[in-house]
Automatic annotation (TrEMBL):
Signal peptide: none annotated. SUPFAM superfamilies: Ribbon-helix-helix (SSF47598). InterPro entries: Arc_rbn_hlx_hlx (IPR013321), FitA-like_RHH (IPR053853), Ribbon_hlx_hlx (IPR010985). This is Antitoxin FitA-like ribbon-helix-helix domain-containing protein. It comes from the Bacteria. It holds the Pfam family FitA-like_RHH. Coiled coil: none annotated.
């Protein structure tokens, strides 16, 4: 499925560089933009759930953890 992407508020210098690069490759600025995005994103690897979980554990390692049963009891007691 093809979609549209509109990029606003680009610096004039960046637009000029895009047009220059597009001309060098014999493409329109829009086609060059698509190619840049494709190249940048095709090699990006999505982290696995385990990797994301490890990052979260590392970020929260020094925080005090409250057991879920305590939180549940507090929630029930507030009703």
């Amino acid at each position: 499925m093809a979609g549209n992407l509109h990029v606003r508020n680009l610096d004039d210098d960046l637009i000029a560089k895009l047009k220059t690069r597009a001309a060098r490759h014999g493409r329109s600025a829009e086609a060059e933009h698509r190619e840049i995005l494709r190249q940048a994103l095709e090699t990006e690897v999505e982290p696995s759930f385990d990797e994301l979980a490890a990052q979260l554990r590392q970020l929260t390692a020094k925080r005090t953890q409250t057991p879920s049963e305590v939180l549940l009891r507090e929630g029930r007691d507030e009703r």
